[in-house]
Amino acid sequence: CSSDLSGRHRRSSPATEDTPVSVRYFFPPNRLHEVLGSTTRTADQCLEEAEANLRELQPQCLEHVEQQLQTLEKLLAASPGQFDDDFLGSVYAAALRLIGVASIAGLPQLDRATSSLCDVVDGMRSRGIWSREPIAVHVSSMRLLSQPNSAGADAIIEGLLSVRRKFAAEQTAPSPLKH
Q1: Side-chain half-sphere CA neighbours of 13 within 13 A
Q2: What pTM was estimated for this model as a whole?
Q3: In sequence order, what are the beta bridge partners of 26?
Q4: Which of 36, 78, 86, 87 makes a 20 to 30 Å CA pair with 3?
Q5: Angle between the 153-167 and 132-145 helix axes, to the nearest 10 degrees?
């Protein structure tokens, strides 16, 4: 069984000197077509449907955002006075549960702030350092950014990125392969 450029599969009979070669084409079923049906849609129509579906999820996403922010605030209130990898792991996990959800909730700047917090916590963990302040400023800023159309959102993000640069783990390029 072989395939030609069109994706069709051919089955050929063994040829001998006296017999001509016969070729039969076999078209495998298109399972995606079976699932979607015969309705054809343009890419723009598919995108519009996807955006409408995401808009339907916004209320649940906003609720999730609020729950995770409360979790982060509770963690921060109980923060240790010294390096504690388990505590930082809990902060990281709570923040990670916000990434993506905040954008669907219509809060893309909150998503950026959350990513920044994850980078800061990851940097602290990898270098074994502790400071409550960068986490506190991120959580406070995230609370402000959880409000739609937050005033000064760009300035808040710039400030958080400055904190991130100070605490995040340094990115190093992988060493070149040696032959």
Answers
A1: 10
A2: 0.70
A3: 9
A4: 36
A5: 160
